[in-house]
Specification:
Number of helices: 3
Distance between the termini: 36 Å
Strand content: 35-45%
Structural class: mainly beta
Order of helices and strands: EHHEEEEHEEEEEEEEEEEEEEEEEEE
Largest sheet: 7 strands, mixed
Radius of gyration: 18 Å
Helix content: under 10%
Length: about 280
């Protein structure tokens, strides 16, 4: 498990593109036959990818970083499948996930395994985990059971569908809020005008990016913005002082996950486009 430490706004202003990428971009999570994890000091989140092929993959604790006997001993987890059909077995209970399905795993779940229906066409499991104090049951959320919220307009190039999966209105969690957004054909901008979350942080995982396309992910304080060039299935970490918006050369999707002081989806500090520099 790699550990990522993020910097304060003053240090951020002096960073080169390579330094920004090494600190805020995670580009190695999805590897056939492996579970890869990254730990960030930003709200002590862990992000990971699992691509099972010919045998199950188990999600294990890292003693050095977590000091836990098993991964979910003091954590809750949200897991999306962004690949072909697969399953997650949590303490002996099998949950089958198609593409865009999501599983919430509560604190205290001891054994978690990932499998693919076909080794030649594997599932791609993406997980985000935050510390937890309360135990809540595992819950499977199917894509077809989530009513999307339609946002934006074609003329502003941000027509999109927002899908809320893990949030207080659906079932209780400790701090995790999670879902995904899809840009319509002909649109490229997400979350514009931008905002920050002083009381929590956000993590993006961009996916469904075409091989010949990319996304420019904008970050930093509104008057000191930078960008990261992001490709398919790469993750960006957004500390509390940073905006998080992006524009693609084609339409795309991204999974957003938040953790911190509260779970109020609308708890954000917005900025006008005129504030950006």
């Amino acid at each position: 498990m790699e550990v990522r430490y993020t910097c304060d706004p003053q240090g951020y202003k002096r960073m080169t593109s390579d330094e920004l990428r090494k600190m805020f971009l995670i580009d190695y999570l999805f590897e056939a036959g492996k579970v890869n994890l990254a730990y960030t000091d930003t709200d002590r989140a862990i992000v990971g990818g699992a691509v099972p092929t010919d045998k199950p993959l188990e999600l294990l604790s890292s003693k050095k970083e977590m000091a836990a006997d098993y991964f979910a001993q003091r954590r809750e987890i949200g897991i999306f499948n962004v690949g072909a059909n697969g399953s997650i077995i949590a303490d002996g209970v099998e949950y089958k996930l198609k593409k865009y399905d999501c599983l919430y795993i509560g604190k205290g779940t001891k054994k978690i395994e990932f499998t693919s229906e076909q080794a030649s066409d594997p599932a791609y499991f993406y997980l985000v985990s935050y510390p937890a104090t309360m135990e809540y049951p595992c819950s499977l959320i199917k894509y077809e059971d989530v009513e999307p919220l339609k946002l934006g307009a074609s003329e502003s190039l941000n027509k999109r569908r927002l899908h809320k999966y893990i949030y207080p209105g659906r079932f209780p969690t400790n701090q995790l809020v999670m879902g995904f957004t899809t840009l319509e054909t002909g649109s490229g901008w997400n979350t514009m005008p931008p905002h920050t979350h002083q009381r929590r942080t956000e993590i993006y995982m961009y996916f469904d990016i075409k091989p010949d396309a990319l996304v420019f992910h904008f970050m930093g304080e509104p008057d000191e913005t930078r960008h990261l060039v992001v490709r398919d299935k790469q993750v960006t970490i957004s500390p509390s002082y940073s905006i998080h918006t992006g524009s693609g050369t084609s339409n795309y999707s991204f999974i957003w996950a938040m953790g911190g002081e509260n779970q109020d989806f609308d708890d954000m500090d917005g900025f006008s486009i005129n504030d950006l520099k």
